[in-house]
């Protein structure tokens, strides 16, 4: 992600000064908003910003320390980066994993109630639909899926989206988009909550991954071009 340690260091400087490129808005001042996925994401975002700002202050102190040689500065920055990486991982588990859990629970709620546990007849009908669809190409199957969503054809939609992972009927991206549309049709309020959770997860994940990648480069954990691994 970063070709040099200089690029990684500049990335962290920019984040400390300007914030992340993609940010979640501050939630409303009520408990429900704070405990929503976007509310949790905002809290995670603030915590990560504080961590980056702290690292940047410490790194600047090292870079201005005339008592250290270039090698000494590099070694101290690597040490600071490793310490920050550990804190990033702690924050990810403590704050970010809950967003993923929230999203999973919301998606479980979105599963159509028309299929009951152990409903063999329903499973057989879905299998028959899938067998017919196997003779079609991806483009045609996507068309059938979209048409089924628009018409409210629960059997066809669930047969396609519930296909075994080893034999998917539509590409993963198409399935994810169709699933969101299906949720929205069944339960608009729940669909909005799922969208909120997806945006929160993706935004926070991007911020954490970018921060950790920069710290890894500075720590020498991951080669980033010829300069990062250079002694």
Tell me what you see in this structure.
By secondary structure, the chain is mostly helical. The chain folds into 2 domains: 5-110 and 189-228, no CATH class; 120-186, no CATH class. The protein is 75% helix and 0% strand. The chain is built from 10 helices and no strands. It has helices at 5-18, 31-35, 37-63, 70-110, 120-133, 138-151, 154-161, 172-186, 188-219, 225-228. Helix 3 packs parallel to helix 9. The radius of gyration is 24 Å and the shape is elongated. Mean pLDDT is 87; it is low at 222-231.
Key attributes of the depicted protein:
10 helices, 2 domains, mainly alpha, 231 residues, disordered C terminus, 75% helix
Helix and strand succession? HHHHHHHHHH
Radius of gyration: 24 Å
Query: Which structural category do the helix and sheet elements fall into?
Result: mainly alpha
Strand tally: 0
What general outline do the C-alpha atoms trace? elongated
Q: What separation lies between the terminal Cα atoms?
A: 20 Å
DSSP strand content: under 5%
- The residue fraction in helices comes out at over 70%
